[in-house]
Each structure stands twice: as structure tokens, then as C-alpha cells.
């Protein structure tokens, strides 16, 4: 079994929150996470976009950067980027082999007593790649929550929480206060914690955690900057990116004041020249039809998608949708109703996924005045949606968006 086959075999063990495994693995590796500085970013939505903006800004200031995000869209190497470019398969595989050597060593020594998870190992792989590449800084996205996420072994220079909304309630809690508490677990003593615009209940809980932790709290929307920024157009579309950009600016200005100077020009570059695929991304297919793809997998994401369509005066379009069974489907459908001319329910190969028929049945109850069709194959679902329209939307689980996007690009689609 190759190292990558061994890594993917760990997916069967699912999610296990906690830091003991990571600490044991990283200790056996000689602590690669201590070889570079970091920015650590949590949040229900927007954290990937903020990671993209911050990494680009730091790179524009002359730093060698790493970027770690999850999940990947199509291939696992996409999770780890050096200077904005995903690493190649050989680099990822070699680092994976090194991590499994450390796992085996820690198991023999007794410091690792249970099988690590897929996310724990892939996180350690990223950290090792950053060490080998001698990056100056890595911008690291939290996988799930914060307090017990495998990435929370870092001692970052800046931390951030982009947003708080309902998602992953089974792991994080059923109130905004509980979810905020879990995400605020990334707070570290004397390390600035930047926050985006948060619901009052969540903001109060995070403020309490920050005070208890002695983490200086920086409200991205209340902080007055002495910098003057020119008029600019954000690289990432959607009004919600204004919120994310404010968080990114606060992170970069905090880094500049605390670690190394980042010019205003570099910050502007971070906002205007970053790339984050499959988030409000238009594809033009080989036949000239156009598809908006967006990994809107929870109510907040669906709300942002609907707002974008309304802001751009886009008439109602057919929406291809695939959703996990543990998601708030009603909360996702409600904002999409005004922008949907039809729903095409599809599915993905995942144990938690709605089948196309079960999703279609639920959609007919939630959207009785909108046509609903079911199509098991995602590519066929796209063809169905475009059969009577020159434009359509694909949204929902990243397990749908990633592979479908790769398939469409491979068959002649282009991003525009």
C-alpha cells in the first residue's frame, strides 16, 4: 500500500476532534509547525476566501508563503499550496510517507495509542511540506470548529474568526454561543484575535473567551485604520466578500504592526488579485452555455449565493443541487426560492449524501411552486438544467462542486 493509499484508507474513521494525536505525531516529526510563522483562520463561512486574500497579500509583501485549506475540490494536493500554487503529487506523497514513518514511530513508542484520522495526517503533511519549503509564513484554515481542530496545535502570530452561523451542530453545538465558543478555542495568550461581523450572542461569547485567554480582540469593522486605500474592485465576487475583505485587511495590518511590514499596495494586491475557485465562479461550457458554480453548503452560503444573483439582476435560473443529509435543507432552500426557476436534485458518492430522489422529495415539499426534477448523475443534471436555459447554477456540497468542476474543465469548459 502506498502512502497515499494509506492516507485515503483513514477516511473510514471519520471525524475525531482532539489534539493528542497531532501532538504525538508532530513530536515524532521534530515539530515541523515550529519552523515557520502562521496565521490561523476559523469561521463558519468565508474563512477560505480570507485565507486566499491574506496569503496573497503576504506574498505580495515579499514573503514565501504556504496555504492550507480543506476540503479539496478535486485532488488532495490542492489543500497545500506554496506561493499560491498547489504542490505536485510527488511532493505530497513524499511528505505523506514521512508523516506515516512518524506515526509508526509514535505508535511503537506508545505516545500514539489510536489510529490518527485522515485530517490529522493530511494536516501534518502540510506542516512538513511547509518546513521543507522553508516558508516564512503559512496561512492555515481551521478544518472544523477550532478548539479541538487538528490545526490548533499552532502558535500563530494572528488568529481570526470570519463569521458565526449554524453548521456542523452535531460537533459544535446547537446555539450560536456554543458554536462561537468552539471557534474561539483558537485564541492564544497575547495573540491578536480578529473578528468579522458576528451575531451579538456569538460576539459576546468570543469576547469572553478572548478576555479569559488574554487575547487582544480586534473587530475588523470597528477598528480605525490610519491607512488610505484607493477605490478597488475585489477579485472575489459577491457582497459578502466585503465582509471578508475587512477581516483580511485587519489581519494584514495586524501582521504588519506585529511581525513584518506589509505595504498598503501589497494589501490591495491581496484583495484584488487573489483566486478562490468554485465560489461564485462562472464557467462557459463548450457549447456556449454558462454555469455558475458555488460551494454553498449551508444556509449562510445559500443566502450569499442568492444575494449575488439578485445584486447582478440575474433572472431566476435552474439550480442543480446536492446536499448532505445532516445539513439544514430548509434553511438553504428558503433564500434560493426567489432566484430558482427550477431545482434539479442530484447526488454524490458519499455516505452522508441525500439520494437524488430523497432530495427531490424534500424539495417538492419546501418549494411547492417550483419545478423539481431528479437526476442521479451530476453531469446529466447539468445537461437537464441547461436544456431549456442558456444559464444555470450548481450549488451545494463541495463533494458535488469539486469533481463536477474538474469534469467540466476537462471537457472544454473555461472559467471567466
Name a few traits of the molecule:
single chain; alpha/beta; UDP-N-acetylmuramoyl-L-alanine:D-glutamate ligase; Protein-Tyrosine Phosphatase, Chain A; seven-stranded mixed sheet; 15 helices; 15 strands
Give a structural overview.
This protein is an alpha/beta fold. It has two domains: 270 residues, UDP-N-acetylmuramoyl-L-alanine:D-glutamate ligase; 135 residues, Mur ligase, C-terminal domain (Protein-Tyrosine Phosphatase, Chain A, Alpha-Beta Complex). It is built from 15 helices and 15 strands. The strands form two sheets. It has an eight-stranded mixed β-sheet, sandwiched between helices. Helix 3 crosses helix 9 and helix 3 crosses helix 10. The model has no long low-confidence stretch (mean pLDDT 96).
How are the secondary structure elements laid out?
Blueprint: H1 3-9, H2 20-28, E1 37-42, H3 47-60, E2 65-68, E3 80-82, E4 85-86, H4 89-109, H5 118-133, E5 137-141, E6 158-161, H6 169-172, H7 176-183, E7 193-195, H8 200-213, E8 217-219, H9 240-258, H10 264-272, E9 281-284, E10 290-294, H11 299-311, E11 317-322, H12 329-336, E12 340-345, H13 356-366, E13 371-374, H14 378-386, E14 391-396, H15 398-410, E15 414-415
Parallel strand pairs: 1-5, 1-6, 2-5, 6-7, 7-8, 10-14, 11-12, 11-14, 12-13
Antiparallel strand pairs: 2-3, 3-4, 9-10, 9-15
Helix pairs in contact: 2-4, 3-9, 3-10, 4-5, 7-8, 11-12
